[in-house]
Specification:
Elements lengths: L14 H20 L2 H21 L7 H6 L1 H9 L5 E6 L5 E6 L3 H22 L11
Keywords: Membrane, Transmembrane, Transmembrane helix
Protein backbone atom coordinates (compact mmCIF):
# COMPACT_ATOMS: atom_id res chain seq x y z
CA UNK A 1 0.00 0.00 0.00
CA UNK A 2 1.39 3.35 -1.03
CA UNK A 3 1.17 6.46 1.09
CA UNK A 4 -1.07 8.30 -1.37
CA UNK A 5 -3.63 5.46 -1.13
CA UNK A 6 -4.22 5.88 2.60
CA UNK A 7 -7.29 7.96 3.42
CA UNK A 8 -7.65 9.30 6.95
CA UNK A 9 -10.94 11.01 7.73
CA UNK A 10 -10.59 14.48 9.14
CA UNK A 11 -12.48 15.33 12.33
CA UNK A 12 -15.74 17.18 11.86
CA UNK A 13 -16.40 15.93 8.35
CA UNK A 14 -18.93 13.21 9.18
CA UNK A 15 -22.53 13.37 8.07
CA UNK A 16 -23.73 12.55 11.60
CA UNK A 17 -21.92 15.56 13.03
CA UNK A 18 -23.34 17.73 10.24
CA UNK A 19 -26.88 16.55 11.03
CA UNK A 20 -26.32 17.34 14.72
CA UNK A 21 -25.36 20.90 13.83
CA UNK A 22 -28.40 21.08 11.51
CA UNK A 23 -30.62 20.22 14.49
CA UNK A 24 -28.89 22.85 16.60
CA UNK A 25 -29.44 25.47 13.89
CA UNK A 26 -33.09 24.48 13.49
CA UNK A 27 -33.56 24.75 17.26
CA UNK A 28 -32.04 28.23 17.32
CA UNK A 29 -34.25 29.30 14.42
CA UNK A 30 -37.35 27.82 16.04
CA UNK A 31 -36.53 29.48 19.34
CA UNK A 32 -36.22 32.91 17.76
CA UNK A 33 -39.23 32.25 15.53
CA UNK A 34 -41.58 31.37 18.38
CA UNK A 35 -41.74 34.98 19.48
CA UNK A 36 -42.24 34.11 23.13
CA UNK A 37 -39.92 34.46 26.07
CA UNK A 38 -39.43 30.69 26.38
CA UNK A 39 -38.36 30.49 22.74
CA UNK A 40 -35.84 33.24 23.26
CA UNK A 41 -34.33 31.35 26.21
CA UNK A 42 -34.27 28.16 24.12
CA UNK A 43 -32.45 29.90 21.28
CA UNK A 44 -29.96 31.59 23.60
CA UNK A 45 -29.31 28.31 25.42
CA UNK A 46 -28.64 26.51 22.14
CA UNK A 47 -26.33 29.34 21.04
CA UNK A 48 -24.36 28.89 24.26
CA UNK A 49 -24.15 25.12 23.65
CA UNK A 50 -22.95 25.75 20.09
CA UNK A 51 -20.41 28.30 21.30
CA UNK A 52 -19.03 25.90 23.90
CA UNK A 53 -18.70 23.18 21.25
CA UNK A 54 -16.88 25.53 18.88
CA UNK A 55 -14.50 26.64 21.63
CA UNK A 56 -13.76 23.05 22.66
CA UNK A 57 -13.52 21.52 19.16
CA UNK A 58 -12.34 24.42 17.05
CA UNK A 59 -13.87 25.20 13.69
CA UNK A 60 -15.00 22.10 11.80
CA UNK A 61 -16.76 21.65 8.45
CA UNK A 62 -19.78 20.00 10.13
CA UNK A 63 -20.57 23.27 11.91
CA UNK A 64 -21.83 24.61 8.59
CA UNK A 65 -24.93 22.57 9.39
CA UNK A 66 -26.12 25.49 11.53
CA UNK A 67 -26.70 27.47 8.34
CA UNK A 68 -28.69 24.60 6.87
CA UNK A 69 -30.72 24.27 10.07
CA UNK A 70 -31.48 27.99 10.17
CA UNK A 71 -33.14 27.55 6.77
CA UNK A 72 -35.95 25.67 8.51
CA UNK A 73 -37.34 28.89 10.03
CA UNK A 74 -38.15 30.72 6.76
CA UNK A 75 -39.47 27.46 5.29
CA UNK A 76 -41.81 27.07 8.27
CA UNK A 77 -42.98 30.67 7.88
CA UNK A 78 -43.61 30.01 4.18
CA UNK A 79 -45.69 26.95 5.07
CA UNK A 80 -47.80 28.97 7.52
CA UNK A 81 -48.42 31.56 4.77
CA UNK A 82 -49.03 29.00 2.02
CA UNK A 83 -52.49 30.43 1.18
CA UNK A 84 -51.17 33.98 0.82
CA UNK A 85 -50.84 36.68 -0.17
CA UNK A 86 -54.07 38.23 1.01
CA UNK A 87 -56.87 37.37 3.40
CA UNK A 88 -57.59 33.75 4.18
CA UNK A 89 -60.81 32.84 5.94
CA UNK A 90 -61.40 29.41 7.43
CA UNK A 91 -64.79 28.28 8.61
CA UNK A 92 -64.91 26.99 12.16
CA UNK A 93 -66.99 24.18 13.62
CA UNK A 94 -69.69 26.60 14.73
CA UNK A 95 -69.95 28.18 11.29
CA UNK A 96 -68.04 31.31 12.27
CA UNK A 97 -65.12 32.20 10.06
CA UNK A 98 -61.71 33.26 11.21
CA UNK A 99 -59.84 35.50 8.79
CA UNK A 100 -56.13 36.21 8.84
CA UNK A 101 -53.92 38.27 6.57
CA UNK A 102 -51.20 36.16 5.02
CA UNK A 103 -48.09 37.38 3.27
CA UNK A 104 -46.51 36.07 0.10
CA UNK A 105 -44.73 32.78 0.98
CA UNK A 106 -42.30 32.77 -1.96
CA UNK A 107 -39.67 35.14 -0.50
CA UNK A 108 -39.53 32.90 2.58
CA UNK A 109 -39.21 29.80 0.39
CA UNK A 110 -36.38 31.43 -1.52
CA UNK A 111 -34.45 32.42 1.63
CA UNK A 112 -34.99 28.98 3.21
CA UNK A 113 -33.92 27.03 0.15
CA UNK A 114 -30.85 29.23 -0.36
CA UNK A 115 -29.79 28.73 3.27
CA UNK A 116 -30.24 24.95 3.05
CA UNK A 117 -28.44 24.61 -0.28
CA UNK A 118 -25.57 26.95 0.64
CA UNK A 119 -25.01 25.12 3.94
CA UNK A 120 -24.94 21.71 2.24
CA UNK A 121 -22.69 22.86 -0.62
CA UNK A 122 -20.22 24.56 1.72
CA UNK A 123 -20.12 21.45 3.92
CA UNK A 124 -19.47 19.16 0.95
CA UNK A 125 -16.73 21.44 -0.33
CA UNK A 126 -15.11 21.79 3.09
CA UNK A 127 -15.09 18.06 3.78
CA UNK A 128 -13.22 17.19 0.60
CA UNK A 129 -9.74 15.98 1.37
CA UNK A 130 -6.87 18.23 0.37
CA UNK A 131 -5.03 17.46 -2.82
CA UNK A 132 -2.19 14.97 -2.98
CA UNK A 133 0.88 15.78 -0.92
CA UNK A 134 3.19 14.76 -3.71
CA UNK A 135 2.81 15.02 -7.44
CA UNK A 136 2.11 11.65 -9.08
CA UNK A 137 4.80 10.34 -11.40
CA UNK A 138 4.09 10.36 -15.09
Amino acid sequence: MWAEEVHVSRPGTGVGAFLGWVLLGAGVGAGFGLGILGGLFLALGLLVVGGVLVVRQGLRPAQLGVLTGLGALPLAIAWLNRRGPGQYCAGGVTGASDCVAQSNPWPFVLVGVVAVVVGIVLFLRARRPPGPLIEPRR
